[in-house]
């Protein structure tokens, strides 16, 4: 693919969208540096054990269950641009403080605080986009931003790898991330404020997590987002422990997945701009995801290294297709089912479908397939197919509730 064609897919022609893309790029490079280098930094530089690092990072993930909704609510009630800028500056301070951490207690306290703030940036950014970008353009822009995120994340991995070459350079990992968060904050100040919808008086707090039809969409979407865990955790574990795939192939699978998303995410977003279109895309993503699971299941039937390797690579291709479709559908459903006056809160709640997958997915999916082998993969495929089948009626039920609420809210 020509470079010019690729750049046209990830760099919008207008200044506003380029600013949003630039913010995402700075954030993604910073996260790529820290996420890929954090284990090395905390074990070799700080002196923590692998168990302590893992426990701390998991605890940070749990904080997202609360902060994504809380900061979404805050974003609906104050300047979203100012809030996003404040969040990035707070993250910069937090990542900078990692360079001073020298005990497990300080690490646990700081990683929880940083995690809590970090999970607030996504709903705040999405809510700000909702005030700046027309509804029919939001999904495509989110797709561009995701492609850019993968590019930036890959750059960040390279920076972390370079820093890991010398013990003296390890401190560059948190400090580089801190600096990039400052860059993101400065770029946010160059955005317009955008118009916010007035919140109706008497609206119940935590309305999103009380909205049962909307929670149903989140739950089904969490199942369809299983590709996250499968590609990052379950498939590598399966390949290393239950197949004859050469070990050097396993890291290459993630590179292949990353490049695939960069090239095709924007194209996959076409048609997911509406709730109906997002449902169709989500259903197709489920079929692809189930197909990927079944391809992996076949590797339990042979020990031929060539056949297994080809099957694993083919499965990553299928799973990557499911990933870009599911991501696009999630943006369409999130924006389409969020009331205009509570976009931050509802988008923050919708982020729970990925957060819960990140927390529960590794233990559940890996446990099932490692314990039951071929039939474990078949069981996962069946559950995914059920989710793909019910996503449309579940989303339509939530949409009907949203439409029914509009006259009531208008008269409050």
From TrEMBL:
Mind telling me which PANTHER family this protein's record contains? MULTIDRUG RESISTANCE PROTEIN MDTH, RESISTANCE PROTEIN MDTM, PUTATIVE-RELATED-RELATED
Write the protein's name: MFS family permease
Domain Major facilitator superfamily (MFS) profile: from-to ranges: 1-196
User: What SUPFAM superfamilies does its record include?
Assistant: MFS general substrate transporter
So where does this one cross the membrane?
21-44, 50-71, 83-101, 107-128, 148-165, 171-191, 212-239, 245-266, 287-319, 374-395
Organism expressing this protein natively: Actinophytocola algeriensis
Q: Does the keyword Iron apply?
A: no
The UniProt keyword set, sorted, is: Cell membrane, Membrane, Transmembrane, Transmembrane helix, Transport
**InterPro entries in the cross-refs:** MFS, MFS_dom, MFS_trans_sf, MFS_Transporters
> What are the subcellular locations of this protein?
Cell membrane
Could you tell me the membrane topology recorded for this protein? Answer: Multi-pass membrane protein
Q: Which GO terms describe its cellular component?
A: plasma membrane
Which Gene Ontology molecular-function terms are recorded?
transmembrane transporter activity
